[in-house]
Design a protein that fits this description.
This protein has about 90 residues and is mostly beta strands. It has one domain. It contains no helices and 8 strands.
């Protein structure tokens, strides 16, 4: 369980000036890892995760704009889709 670094988090897509959707590509991720989406969101409303090499498709948990990776991934590549209120 660790805070992901800027080298592990890539914003693959984002859209929206009021409501926002963002797709993140994350590298070398393990369950319990966290990252902060504050650069894209003021508030996250919901999100999901799909890992590249396993069979995990799951809802993510978050506190404010900090996202926590759910059980499943272990040193894996994952995609995280978030929806919420756009940040500054």
């Amino acid at each position: 369980m660790a805070q992901l670094t800027v080298n592990q988090v890539y914003v693959a897509y984002q859209d929206g000036n009021c409501g926002r959707t963002a797709l993140y590509a994350l590298k070398n991720v393990t369950a319990g890892d966290t990252f902060d989406a504050a650069a894209q969101f003021a508030t996250i409303r919901r999100g999901g995760l799909i890992n590249e090499t396993g069979s995990t498709i799951a809802a993510i948990t978050f506190t404010g704009t900090v996202v926590t990776i759910p059980a499943g991934p272990a040193a894996d590549a994952v995609w995280v889709l978030l929806v919420g209120v756009a940040g500054a």
